[in-house]
């Protein structure tokens, strides 16, 4: 039996919808009551993989690294002691290595690879929706400090399609790592031009000061700053992606980012 976790989340709910459309046989797990099994990875006693041989582990949320690492460790420990044979994990692209939240993903990859179970690692690129939302315009201007370099962002829909392509035949994807960055990169100046607003980038210290006035959790400020700094330095662009090996016709990530950027104005 196959189990998909995190099914109240934006990515995992898309995966569930697509897996259902394809007629795949699976059950769901979430902290929410709507799932087949209610599990909270912060509480190992709630993790029940009875009868599960293939686990699709959606990475578990935004938090300090020690919390995310503990969550993922709880899942992998429970899986290996409860008879799971194969874990498919949603990680983060190599191009995102300088982001604040890359560390917990790399830790989880290593933990999985040393677990003795079969694994497949989907190294998801940064969501186009996330870039669009951070680059939302206000009064006809985008003022975030992205710099001018391109970003290889990818839509959540494409990442869900990639996940389902793997779930259709997990054995064919045993012990493989897929880099799933977007194949057609775009810059924030491209985005501004497409939605007909001005791009007036600020600098990092101005943005940090602005973020510190908002009601954010402590880990969120460095996390967001790492996205801007990596973009500015050109590290979020890559020419190396395996996306088309799983999704032959990826969507236009810039169009996805524009939809989010204009939705939030
Ligand atoms: N590629 C990117 O751009 C990017 C950016 C940021 C983060 N991510 C990672 O990608 C994941 C999925 O993205 P998303 O857009 O779907 O995020 P989302 O809508 O915020 O969903 C958060 C996910 O984390 C799960 N989760 C959080 N705490 C959990 C816990 N204690 N136990 C079990 N599950 C827990 C949620 O599961 P339930 O609510 O169903 O329990 C849900 O699937 C995120 O959780 C994050 O790790 C990716």
What would you note in describing this structure?
- The protein is globular and about 55 Å long.
- It has helices spanning 10-21, 65-81, 102-113, 128-134, 156-167, 188-194, 204-212, 220-232, 243-246, 253-263; strands spanning 2-5, 26-30, 37-38, 54-57, 86-92, 118-124, 141-142, 150-151, 176-180, 186-187, 198-199.
- The relative contact order is 0.16.
- With 265 residues, the protein is α/β, with parallel strands linked by helices.
- Helix 6 crosses helix 10.
- A seven-stranded parallel sheet has the order 3-2-1-4-5-6-9, with helices on both faces.
- The chain has one domain (2-259): 3-Layer(aba) Sandwich (Rossmann fold).
- It has ten helices and eleven strands.
- The model has no long low-confidence stretch (mean pLDDT 96).
- Helix 3 links the parallel strand 5 (86-92) and strand 6.
- 39% of the residues lie in helices and 16% in strands.
- The structure holds NADP nicotinamide-adenine-dinucleotide phosphate.
- NADP nicotinamide-adenine-dinucleotide phosphate binds at residues 6-12, 30-32, 40-42, 58-61, 71, 90, 92, 124, 126-127, 130.
């Amino acid at each position: 039996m196959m189990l998909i976790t995190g099914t109240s989340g934006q990515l995992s709910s898309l995966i569930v919808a697509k897996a259902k459309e394809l007629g795949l046989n699976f059950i769901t797990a979430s902290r929410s009551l709507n799932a087949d099994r209610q599990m909270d990875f912060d509480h190992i006693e709630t993790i029940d993989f009875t009868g599960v041989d293939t686990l699709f582990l959606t990475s578990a949320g935004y938090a300090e690294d020690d919390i995310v690492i503990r969550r993922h460790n709880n899942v992998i420990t429970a899986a290996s002691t409860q008879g799971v044979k194969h874990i498919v994990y949603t990680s983060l692209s190599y191009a995102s290595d300088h982001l604040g939240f890359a560390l917990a993903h790399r830790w989880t990859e290593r933990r999985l690879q040393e677990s003795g179970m079969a694994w497949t690692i989907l190294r998801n690129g940064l969501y186009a929706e996330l870039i669009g939302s951070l680059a939302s315009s206000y009064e006809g201007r985008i003022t975030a400090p992205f710099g001018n370099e391109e970003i290889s962002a990818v839509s959540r829909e494409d990442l869900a399609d990639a996940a389902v392509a793997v779930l259709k035949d997990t054995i064919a994807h045993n012990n493989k790592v897929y880099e799933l960055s977007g194949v057609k990169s775009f810059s924030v100046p491209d985005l501004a031009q497409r939605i007909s607003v001005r791009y007036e980038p600020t600098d990092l210290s101005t943005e940090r000061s602005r973020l510190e006035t908002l009601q954010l959790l402590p880990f969120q400020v460095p996390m967001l700053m790492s996205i801007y700094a990596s973009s500015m330095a050109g590290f979020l662009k890559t020419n190396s992606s395996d996306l088309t090996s799983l999704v032959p016709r990826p969507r236009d990530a810039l169009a996805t980012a524009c939809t989010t950027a204009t939705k939030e104005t």
